[in-house]
Amino acid sequence: MSDYEVIDQITVSLAHEIRDREKCYTGIAIPTAVVAIQLARMTHAPNLEFLYGGYWINPDLDIDLFAIMIDLEAFNKAYSRAKGFGRLISLYNYWEGPKLTLDFGIIRPAQIDQWGNINNSVIGDYQHPKVRFPGGAAVGDIINTCHRVLAYIPRHDTRTFVGKVDFITGRGTSPQWRKKVGLDQYQGLTTIITDLCIFRIEPLSGKLQVKSIHESSSPEEVQENTGFSLEIPKETPVTPPPSETELELLRTKVDPLEVRKFDSRER
Fold it and tell me: Which phi and psi angles does 213 have, rounded to 5°?
């Protein structure tokens, strides 16, 4: 195994899911997503366009991506160095009129179940929760109006992968439900990348399936850290590790300040 950290594997695997000439959305407080987007733009997707944080269209990413949330000067600097400026509520107008046509969005769920239901709202009873998260933000919109949705989980464990989510912030990927409500042209959640493996959503059943397992993990570890039963074939492939070129770009050009490590969760 090469000299890299698990967060590097997550970042590179997320970048591999991105295609050139796509349009995407990502929020501010998910740094690994932003780093993966920049890595994709510097390698195989130079014509990618993305809306960052509901405001900046294709910002220069050498700005302080966190300072813009609290510092007016940094906010204005980001605005002046972006291709454009909009608001999440105006996405419909920016991208192509009344129908949202974003190719994909990226989210980081707090809880997820075997049907792809997402919880970013509360743990426990809604009225008296043990933990209250920031809430849905754009999750409910993105998961139902992007052509596909990518998710990443920095620490794969039974608190995150549960039999049933405590609250549905974003509806899962049931093909029957999507067809019933007129959303069958959008795939919803398609891919989940964790520190142990990569899941795909099976298109007919809408359930999570293990696509590959990272070389630093094992089928036993994946199942042990998942709160529901998985069918993991013996021939499940190993996730392609980061290449030396990708690691060099991450460390020297894309993310020399190691912003992605804000997402790291030690086991």
Answer: -125, 135
